[in-house]
UniProtKB/TrEMBL annotation, chains A, B:
Biological processes annotated in GO: prolyl-tRNA aminoacylation
Provenance organism: Flagellimonas sediminis
Similarity remark: Belongs to the class-II aminoacyl-tRNA synthetase family. ProS type 3 subfamily.
Sequence ranges assigned to domain Aminoacyl-transfer RNA synthetases class-II family profile in this UniProt record: 27-294
Gene Ontology, cellular component aspect: aminoacyl-tRNA synthetase multienzyme complex; cytoplasm
EC number: 6.1.1.15
Protein name: Proline--tRNA ligase
UniProt remark on domains: Consists of three domains: the N-terminal catalytic domain, the anticodon-binding domain and the C-terminal extension.
Lineage: Bacteria, Pseudomonadati, Bacteroidota, Flavobacteriia, Flavobacteriales
């Protein structure tokens, strides 16, 4: 199997599309804009889910499940929310099909028209806050910290596997609090939880910050985000956490009796990450040979390929390998011993390289005689010979080192792609020629933000947290600015 | 908190509805027929999922994810399939809302009408077999054994929490095989896997069998099922596994190159269990005091309630309890120490009884002095005093014993509610007065089956596997019959 993968330099976008399909992560379905997540891709998503779910529970959240459908009237209750989602939602209008009277096939049964249309959830604030009204009466019922794993639909016109699909999988946290401060604390906490996951498990460094008013979630008072940088110099929003103020509580009339005996509207947050993270994972680490997966999320961490002629040699190899497989599994390492006799070693090497398996062991006749394995690491493609006695320790060390290395490589790449500029000319040049994040002063107005976006396609990715205050002047208008913000072209 | 629960004897159906809501498992949402699964209910479902998922993986299945939407034309490709599902499906016809021109609010944008309507999946055979066509070329690609965890929608007119809802959560396995025999073996295997789960984890005994032609899944050649019996004498289908023959392969043109160089249609199975199992769990074990949960699926296995006056006593108790909590958790037991000072012990006792927590420990001043705990088991409501030194072992033993006991109780109930009858008169009397399963001879025709159903509301739940052959005559028509089948009224 040749990989026949377009190189990143040649066409980054094409490279990505081909890689996702060829490495068996996902493919387009017969339904416009909807993807099929294939077993290998889903196995990575399951690992992400398991870790995130653990982190949510450790921070006091519980899972629940709310309806797929949202009555049209619910969506309309929060003004900016409906503004944000009405333009791209799938609408259920009927609940039955029937045989056409003219025999032309199956048609919608007009007698089964819904009184009120249902929207397939694009996000669940409205249906959840309609429910919270019943659950929250008193300060004793707060905080309420719930997460949901679900599918959502946003009818995008231009779609790309994982990055932008009509249907995608995600989790959405929805919390309710007695005070503004506590809700803000929660929204910030979840941004940090996301950052910890994305950095420590996905090996993708992120910048934490807040969105400008025009980039905020529809219905939020503040949107916290984590922004990552892809190898083509474009940014990708990896997760968002919203402080919703009392907007949804007011829209759905959710009040609570305070300790002091008053009645107050509840404070809210929501936060989510989606299968989009799969796109970030692929685009951050992979190379022209295929996927490079961080060991913590690799469905197969170690593959063992026997190199043999004839069944006797294979048997002798298997006798060595099988106890090793057991030893590695006992350490919690996921191992595949690929002894298929339908495919040659070279084919297998290619396949596991394409699929980003972090560590590959090969063992042939000479290794058998010498008591060695050939060990190859996917991230650097380096190979070495390691004695069987040391192999378990070597594999453990390698997995840790690869996890560290892919992260460090991404950090280094990003460090080289954050440019500070002080003039709009310079800004345009960097955005056009080099890409990456550009740190610049901005006057804080949506007008300037729009102008920059229109002229350069770059948007403000975030107002970084903990960025030092620095007096300056907006690169476009020359008006005063107290802090640099981060611009980039983005996915 | 009084429980105010209707008793089973008074009104079984009302008891169930009240119990599901009051024990915080689920509730109806603002969307007709769609439920909200609350955190406590979802925690049980998560435990079910985790165990089933493990069993699926151990039997060689992988997870994947397919689109929520099914183009109308796909549904129509398999004749009996569309017949079965067209009458109850949610249809997406538009992909945008807009502001009404007369200012009356948000309306469907008629300019955004889909060329082809999309059905919200009622089950995924069609979209999956459309995908399998691309994945299967050769016998080397077989078997293909995939499972999906997903939400599905069937527009039911009369709904009940968990038992029958418009949207529900489930898993659906879809496998492809090179031979008829292998597919049948798979369908049977999954029936056994389901039975093992339902009996050993849910503590619900089931009868394995096959469905009659008229009760089969729309598109199946054989439907294997597991049937459980509820405390009101009605049966509940707990899981089904279908041998689909080559029906979907033919409808979606999925052929493979055989080892011998020919081309053949692929053989298929599908199998699923859903959140309906939650209903079976509740209805099998629970009593007039609330839920009774089998320890293996209880989100909280042990609750510890302190009985104290003043903070000094609470501190002294907590000093004892906290190490115990650690010890129990180290054994993998989920423990809640409820030291809330907002609620009295009696309230807490009631609450955990209602929620079916298997073991309750209480500790007060006198226990502290005597070095004891009061131990109560939820299934029998028995209480005893146990010394602190023996408490860990006691709790472990109790959890095992409760798991065994609730299962045995359900087996005993069922044994008392399987009646063999030889005349239709007797049949009608048993169905009417006693309920339960009725084992009787039937002539094998759908006409007789329909007549019985119409006259008694009883259906053939299954043709039991491994039932001994026994020559007899149909209780209705007197025609010859070789095997008894199981009738019951059913959910």
């Amino acid at each position: 199997m040749g990989k026949n993968l377009t190189s990143r330099a040649e066409d980054y976008s094409k490279w990505y599309n081909e890689l996702v399909v060829k490495s068996d992560l996902a493919e387009n379905s017969g339904v416009r804009g909807c993807m099929v997540i294939k077993p290998y891709g889903y196995a990575i998503w399951e690992k992400m889910q398991a870790q995130l779910d653990k982190m949510f529970k450790e921070t006091g959240h519980e899972n629940a499940y709310f309806p797929l459908f949202i009555p049209k009237s619910y969506l309309s209750k929060e003004a900016s929310h409906v503004e944000g989602f009405a333009k791209e939602c799938a609408v259920v209008t009927h609940y039955r099909l029937k045989n056409a009277e003219d025999g032309s096939g199956i048609v919608v049964d007009e007698d089964a028209k819904l009184e009120e249309e249902l929207i397939v959830r694009p996000t669940s604030e409205t249906i959840i806050w309609d429910t919270y009204r019943k659950w929250i009466q008193s300060y004793r019922d707060l905080p309420l910290k719930i997460n949901q794993w679900a599918n959502v639909v946003r009818w995008e016109m231009r779609t790309r596997l994982f990055l932008r699909t009509a249907e995608f999988l995600w989790q959405e946290g929805h919390t309710a609090h007695a005070t503004r401060e506590e809700a803000i604390e929660e929204a910030e906490l979840m941004m940090h939880v996301y950052a910890e996951f994305v950095e420590n498990y996905m090996g993708v460094p992120v910048i934490k910050g807040t969105k400008t008013a025009s980039e905020r979630f529809a219905g939020a008072e503040e949107t916290y985000c984590i922004e990552a940088l892809m190898q083509d110099g474009k940014a990708l929003q990896a997760g968002t956490s919203h402080f919703l103020g009392q907007n949804f509580a007011k829209a759905f009339d959710v009040k609570f009796a305070t300790k002091e005996g008053g009645q107050e509207y509840v404070w809210a947050t929501s936060w989510g990450v989606s299968t989009r993270l799969m796109g970030a994972l692929v685009m951050t680490h992979s190379d022209d040979n295929g996927l490079v997966l961080p060991p913590k999320l690799a469905p197969i961490q170690v593959v063992i390929v026997p190199i043999y002629k004839g069944m006797d040699q294979l048997d002798a190899i298997s006798e060595k390998v099988e106890p090793l497989v057991m030893q590695l599994r006992a350490k919690g390492i996921s191992v595949k011993y690929d002894n298929r006799d339908t495919h040659k070693p070279g084919f297998k090497f290619n396949e596991y390289e394409l699929k980003g398996v972090p560590v590959r062991l090969a063992i042939g006749q000479r290794d058998l005689e010498n008591g060695t394995y050939e060990v190859a690491r996917r991230d650097t493609l380096e190979k070495e010979s390691v004695s069987a006695a040391e192999i378990v320790g070597k594999v453990e060390a390698l997995l840790e080192d690869i996890q560290r290395n892919v992260y460090q490589k991404a950090i280094d790449y990003r460090a080289e792609h954050i440019t500070r500029v002080d003039s709009y000319e310079e800004f345009k040049k960097v955005i056009e020629e080099k890409g990456g994040f550009v740190s610049a002063h901005w006057d804080g107005t949506p007008e300037t933000e729009d102008k920059i976006k229109e002229e350069t396609k770059a948007t403000i990715r975030c107002i970084p947290l903990h960025e030092e205050q620095e007096e300056g002047t907006c690169m476009v208008t020359g008006k005063p600015s107290l802090q640099r913000v981060l611009f980039a072209k983005a996915y």
